[in-house]
Structure to design on (169 residues):
């Protein structure tokens, strides 16, 4: 018995309506990010192949196509690595869904899911010197009620307690 392949537009629609909204309950902002990722992906594929999104199949989202899209994001759109990774996360989420809903296409999602997130350098967090902290704590005018409250808030923010302190070693 041959399995019936789910049409790609239906799969994408089900992914957004059933998986993301109904099952996972994602917030509107996350949905917008996923939508934007797919809009960019489909425009990129259409630009490369001439095929409109309504004519695509899961097999069209193979590894070379996805990698080309990710390179396009970084090189032509000047997106940061974090943005590239966020777009990749949306594609990965879709591919996990496609693998379950359309088992006939399983080899394609499996290969795309093997594309790792790109590593990037995280900035080193700075810190304030003792003198800078002392200056901040001395800044509120303690002769006023609001200044006294400001000083208490700043002191509390600076010194949250032993659970948050680093050991001197």
């Amino acid at each position: 018995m041959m399995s019936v392949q789910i049409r790609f537009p239906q799969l994408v629609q089900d992914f957004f309506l059933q998986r993301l909204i109904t099952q996972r309950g994602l917030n509107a902002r996350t949905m917008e990010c996923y939508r934007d990722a797919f809009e960019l992906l489909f425009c990129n594929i259409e630009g490369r192949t001439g095929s409109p999104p309504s004519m695509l199949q899961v097999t069209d989202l193979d590894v070379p196509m996805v990698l080309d899209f990710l390179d396009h994001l970084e090189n032509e759109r000047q997106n940061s690595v974090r943005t590239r990774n966020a777009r990749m996360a949306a594609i990965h989420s879709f591919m996990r869904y496609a693998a379950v809903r359309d088992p006939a296409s399983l080899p394609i999602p499996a290969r795309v899911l093997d594309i790792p997130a790109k590593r990037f350098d995280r900035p080193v967090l700075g810190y304030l010197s003792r003198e800078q902290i002392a200056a901040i704590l001395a800044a509120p005018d303690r002769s006023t009620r609001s200044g006294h409250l400001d000083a208490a808030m700043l002191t509390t923010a600076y010194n949250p307690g032993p659970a948050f302190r680093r050991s001197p070693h």
